[in-house]
Amino acid sequence: MAGAVTRNLNKNSNTLAEILKPPGNNIVGVFIKENLKHAINSLTDSPHSNDCIKEIAKMLQRFSKKFFLEFNACTDYARKATKELIIIDKELQCAVGEQCSDQIVRPVNAFLIVDVQNDFISGSLDISNCSAQQKGHEILEPVNNLLDTVDFDAVFYSLDWHPSDHVSFIDNVKMRPLDETSPIDADSAQVFDTVIFAGPPPMKQRLWPRHCVQDSWGAELHKDLKVMDNGIKVYKGTNPEVDSYSVFWDNKKLSDTTLNAQLKMKGTTDIYVCGLAYDVCVGATAVDALSVGYRTILIDDCCRGTDFKDIENTKEKVISSHGVIVQSNEIKAMAEGRDRRPELGYKLAMELKNPDSVLSQRNGYRVGE
């Protein structure tokens, strides 16, 4: 059945691609020609092809409305393309069968709250003192609201947890030799400068004020952040010789944290990420989550960062890796499966094709739940 469905999809998507050639440089044409056919072709060998097919069908329906209509494409152009999308969806309904019409992959949602700690809000590394001058405490209300209103399958809190001799602290810069290629010497180095420590191999390191030292007040989660009884804390940055922005592993990827193992144990498919700082630990975590294979949703209004340019670069990386950036008022519908994003459908198709991905290997993987 999967082969027949794929052949029909390819036939109709070829027609769609032809329709989309003029004007060819708009966002609709680029998305379809670059991503849609790739996603359809990936179904051929998928062990979960029926479910994957339904995901693509829903993606196509949403896509036709969201992009063709919102971007005010030429009426005839939009009508022809939308008609072809409807044909594709009808082919899917016939091939998959009436009994499968409600079968979808049930997401298992994890909420990951990154580094909402005292030092980043009002302590030694208060991000409001950085160039973007954003206030970390502003995320507390929307984050707490999500914890109160959305039934996540798991909630994780990450904490920077540095020993006192950590390599990232500006006052420790003379504890280790710098590489001859370092653009700044130890005597001249200032907060937020980047130096290169001697190897092997040489290691770039941005220098920060002393922050989040283990068992200090600055390392504690902020008192106004709601901590769930079943919430899981993940500690990072514990190795004095290497920094750790991502909650998955250190910056050299020498060792990982407990996060990925715990996500796999829970059968997680979707990760909702927020916290501090947007362009440092939050961004690194979101990109790593995507690279590992999780469908990743970055919650824009639940993040604050240090530098506007770096924040924009973070957003571009997440989007280009097939992640999604949304506002907190959109999360409940997404977590409950009522709001299905085409980007996440595409990510699902790619991951189900890969037998080594976390989604393919998900423990207790079932459909129609």
TrEMBL record:
<keyword id="KW-0378">Hydrolase</keyword>
<keyword id="KW-0662">Pyridine nucleotide biosynthesis</keyword>
<dbReference type="InterPro" id="IPR036380">
    <property type="entry name" value="Isochorismatase-like_sf"/>
</dbReference>
<keyword id="KW-0479">Metal-binding</keyword>
<dbReference type="InterPro" id="IPR052347">
    <property type="entry name" value="Isochorismatase_Nicotinamidase"/>
</dbReference>
<protein>
    <recommendedName>
        <fullName>nicotinamidase</fullName>
        <ecNumber>3.5.1.19</ecNumber>
    </recommendedName>
</protein>
<comment type="pathway">
    <text>Cofactor biosynthesis; nicotinate biosynthesis; nicotinate from nicotinamide: step 1/1.</text>
</comment>
<dbReference type="InterPro" id="IPR000868">
    <property type="entry name" value="Isochorismatase-like_dom"/>
</dbReference>
<dbReference type="Pfam" id="PF00857">
    <property type="entry name" value="Isochorismatase"/>
</dbReference>
<feature type="domain" description="Isochorismatase-like">
    <location>
        <begin position="110"/>
        <end position="310"/>
    </location>
</feature>
<dbReference type="GO" id="GO:0019363">
    <property type="term" value="P:pyridine nucleotide biosynthetic process"/>
</dbReference>
<comment type="similarity">
    <text>Belongs to the isochorismatase family.</text>
</comment>
<dbReference type="GO" id="GO:0008936">
    <property type="term" value="F:nicotinamidase activity"/>
</dbReference>
<dbReference type="GO" id="GO:0046872">
    <property type="term" value="F:metal ion binding"/>
</dbReference>
